[in-house]
Fold this sequence. Notes:
Helices cover 42% and strands 14% of the residues. Helix 1 packs across helix 7, helix 3 (69-83) runs parallel beside helix 4 and helix 4 (110-135) runs parallel beside helix 5 (158-178). It has one domain: NAD(P)-binding Rossmann-like Domain (Rossmann fold), CATH 3.40.50.720. Helix 4 (110-135) links the parallel strand 4 (88-91) and strand 5 (141-146). It has 257 residues and is an alpha/beta fold. Nicotinamide-adenine-dinucleotide binds at residues 14-16, 20-22, 41, 45, 64-67, 92-95, 119, 145-147, 190, 192-193, 195-198.
Amino acid sequence: MNNLLAGKTGIIFGVANKRSIAWSCAQSLASQGMRLAFTYMGERLERSVRELATEMPNSLCLPCDVTKPEQVEEVFRVLKAEFGGLDAIVHAVAFAKREELQGDFFHTSREGYIIAHEISAYSLTQIVRTALPLMEGRDGSIVTLTYIGGERVVPNYNVMGIAKAALEASVRYLAHDLGPRGIRVNAISAGPIRTLSASGVSGFTDILDHIAQKAPLRRNITAEEVGDTCLFLVSPHSRGITGSVLYVDAGYHVMGV
Ligand code: NAD
Ligand code: IMJ
């Protein structure tokens, strides 16, 4: 089984380097024959993303800062010209100012709150709206990445937790909007993984150790496991699932203590 997505196209937002969860999603989708486009945030990441994308046949790389609507629009203009249509979107984008990810949540600044929500939550809705004309009539699938800090308190996750709650609610409202057009929208709630976005998070090693001791599977998860769940959500095997959050967390979310 290696051609589940032959003839289909997808776009991946959020590759920074080979450790990015978005890159594992890309590898799983490409392994089943999907043709992919990648976006990168800022010129500093262009080289890294272009180098990774050379592994993927017929792929495209485009700049996209999700705070710039004209860049989002340009992405889908190019995609229409190059791919014609679009079957899948993977949204793996999040950002909050570093100073907002420590100390008391109530210190969150107005600006920090707005930035975290614009990049980590609103961007999904903006991307979906702009992509819609390319996805009409194709039974598409949209997948975003979330974290349990959007439903429960994880110390230091702070404003990112509030933004993930908004992102998860957006998944439900988008699923309702797009269901009649045959487009599904789901989120993957991933356990902690050492990526660029996890670097410098205070106590991250302790959190990984805690999961390895307490999660039902008694281990942490890998980015490849998230990628394979993304493949499931993009493929027709998940055709009855929309508006859901799937946990790829070694079962940690079921625990009470
Ligand atoms: P990562 O740093 O590799 O990916 C985050 C991406 O967001 C980067 O590629 C970055 O360039 C992009 N980004 C930030 N600001 C942007 C902007 N203005 N416009 C466009 N892109 C922008 O880290 P990751 O851990 O792979 O994160 C991917 C997703 O997974 C995020 O939504 C994150 O919240 C989520 N997640 C991560 C973990 C974890 O432990 N690493 C766990 C659960 C969920
Ligand atoms: C992030 C902050 C605090 C605690 C955290 C995390 N835990 C985990 C993460 C326990 C697992 C990683 N995560 C789930 C994220 O969504 C990270 C988002 C993020 C990370 C950074 C670090 C660098 C920076 N801004 C960031 N913005 C968002 O400047």
